[in-house]
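From the shared-data thread, chain only:
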Amino acid sequence: MQNYQHLTPEERAVIMIELRAESSLRSIGKLLNRSASTISRELSRNQNQHSVDYCASAAGQQYKVNRQRSRKRAKLIPGTFLYEQVKEWLVHNQWSPMQISGTLYRHFPDQVNMQVSHETIYASIYAHPKNELKRQMIQALRRSKRKRGPRGTKDSNYSSLKIAEDQFIHHRPEEINERRFPGHWEGDLIVGAMNRSCIGTVVERKTGFVILSKMKSKSAASVRAGFERQMKKLPAFLRLSMTYDRGAEMAQHPIMSKNLKMKIYFADPHAPWQRGSSENINGLLRQYLPKGEDLSQYSQATLNKIAWLLNTRPRERFNFRTPQELIETVLEDHLNSVALES
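Structure, as tokens:
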């Protein structure tokens, strides 16, 4: 079942024009792909009582007024006694929103303006502007979640992605942060039209070498299989770690880590700069994989060719050497070290 969509200004203009052409409500509805009852309700709300004429601009203005009236007034307004009391109990006493709501009802049983539900308190916290006060409020909550929403929605904090404490990026060793040695990668997905197709990208942090992986879908199983298929082609000494964002497509990261014998770290939410190499490469890739395209049309052979074009492109960061040259040097040095040890 589709959600009802309010009439747009363009649709109101069509209604006005068709009414003046004496079109029926059913034919107008068919033209707009709307039901005749929708057109009828629009006219009953906004047709001038003193005239049979329908004005699209006047109807639009009345719609805005009605929408404004329908919104509930906020109860927790900064600066009010109720807001300050809730903030004190939350931040300083570290009470839960449920405890705060219950205490307010107990202390002010006959004052509705001093009563607020725990859901309203949660909504007020997460709607608060991003600043130090919001950070303090979220930290005061039991779970300190940055987002809140129903289970399973894209805005909820509930996800199949489970991360161990030592996998957070802040636990990543300095040798990775400073790009001292090769073998440490940054991963991501480039998503196609309508979020229905995707391509996996991994870039080596020290050399900038890129690998692209064709994915069957954005599911955790497909993403794991796609990354594993391409990463297994690398020698073990070049599969030391990967840093990824917190997308749910990485829900099977423990299996991937075990199969590739590679540590996986996760960046903080909304911190793209922590995976700067990946963000840079994704920008360059849009030259070959434009936004809005169906990415399922690209074969792995085509993706390999695109990766080759990027890997053989001179980079100012490397004094105009290419990632291909650098990775070949890494491989040669490793072979020489193995030969010396043997």
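The radius of gyration is 29 Å.
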